[in-house]
Each structure stands twice: as C-alpha cells, then as structure tokens.
UniProtKB/TrEMBL annotation:
Keywords: Cell membrane, Membrane, Signal, Transmembrane, Transmembrane helix. It is found in: Cell membrane. It comes from Oncorhynchus tshawytscha. It is a multi-pass membrane protein. InterPro entries: Na/K-Atpase_Interacting. The chain crosses the membrane at residues 34-55, 62-86, 151-171. One of its GO terms (biological process) is regulation of sodium ion transport. Belongs to the NKAIN family. The lineage of its organism: Eukaryota, Metazoa, Chordata, Craniata, Vertebrata. Pfam families: NKAIN. Residues 1-21 form the signal peptide. GO terms for cellular component: plasma membrane. This is Sodium/potassium-transporting ATPase subunit beta-1-interacting protein.
Length: 208
C-alpha cells in the first residue's frame, strides 16, 4: 500500500512538472532564452522517463530522474541568483542567450499591467524601424516573475526527489523479498504431489 501511494504521488508530481516545464518553455521561446530552452528540453525528456519508469516499475529510470532532479534544483537556483543579481551575476547580461542576441525575458515587456511604448529620440533617424522601447506600469517586475517560476520548479523538484528516493527503496525491497521467497525450496516453481502407492508386488508364477 505504501509503495502504491508513493508511486501515485510521484506520477502526480511528474505530471505537474511536465505542465509547468511546458509552460515555461513557451515563454522562454518567446524571449529567445536559449540556455533555458535547452535546459527545459532535457528536463521534459527526463521527467517523461521518470514518469514511465514509475508506472512500469523501472528503478533505473527513476534513478536517472532522481539525479537529474538534483541538477534541476541547482539550475533553478542559478536562475534565481541571475535575476536577483546575486554572486556577481546580473540580469542585464546576455548570458542566457549565449551572447547571440540582446533579448531578455519575455515578461520584461509583457508582464501583468505592463504598457509597452515605442519611443524615438528626437533628432535621431530611425534605422531599420528600430526604436527605443519603454515599459511602464508593471504590477510585478519581470525578474520576480522569473524567480517565482524557478521557486515553483525547485519546490516541485524537491518533492519529486524525496518521493523518487522512497519509490526506489520500496521497489528494491519488493524485489529482494520476491527473490527471497522460496530461496531454500529446492523446487520453488513446481511441486510434484507424490501419492503413496498402495499396490503390493505379488510374485508371478508362469504356468507350464
């Protein structure tokens, strides 16, 4: 019963992780955040692997999921530090785009309540329809939205890590107990019912 409830909880957590990861992947694509896009891609694959490993009683798959979950927590802690400008990191850098482009988080211009206005400096000609973008009136700054996303990922990942360890332990114990059953039985699979013979051997005489 304990293993069953643990498996059901882990399956539920994997489902939540998939939905949250897909939602995050969409907004990272909109913001051209290439590093998070790659991380989300691997995360989705490993979560699916852990999902099917839990359903099909494959502890090796769950071990892979557990190891990745620890790495995923570390990655999201890095994202939190990046957007909060902790440890020498700065959200204004192009680190998440591999310095390929100057794009930033999609939430920077499309957050709740944000008003996006294109402005041009007076006396400066517009080249290739480029203009200065001003964002005002945001109810929540974009960095806090990103931090909230990462904090949610960390919370779900920690729960998944705990339940994955529990399910691995439970499955391993079940396999060990299954192997132990009949360990001292010389015929663990087949039992032959031997019935005592009531036939008496009688001497036979040949008549001539």
């Amino acid at each position: 019963m304990g293993c069953c409830s643990g498996r059901c909880t882990l399956i539920f957590l994997c489902s939540i992780q998939l939905m949250v990861a897909l939602e995050r992947q969409v907004f990272d694509f909109l913001g051209y955040q290439w590093a998070p896009i790659l991380a989300n891609f691997f995360h989705i694959i490993i979560v699916i692997l852990g999902f099917f490993g839990t359903i099909q009683y494959r502890p090796r798959y769950i071990v892979v999921y557990t190891v990745w979950t620890a790495l995923w927590v570390a990655w999201n802690l890095f994202i939190v530090c990046f957007y909060l400008d902790v440890g020498g990191l700065t959200k204004e850098s192009d680190l998440l785009t591999f310095d390929i482009s100057a794009h930033h988080s999609w939430w920077r211009e499309h957050g709740p309540g944000c008003v996006r206005r294109e402005m041009t400096q007076p006396g400066v000609a517009i080249v290739d329809s480029q203009s200065y973008i001003s964002v005002m009136g945001c109810l929540i700054e974009y960095q806090y939205i990103e931090v909230l996303h990462s904090a949610t990922q960390i919370l779900i990942a920690l729960l998944g890590f705990v339940y994955a360890c529990y399910v691995i332990s439970a499955i391993t114990e079940e396999e060990d107990s299954f192997d132990f059953v009949g360990g001292f039985d010389p015929f663990p699979l087949y039992h032959v019912n031997e019935k005592p013979s009531h036939l008496l051997l009688k001497p036979m005489y040949l008549s001539t």
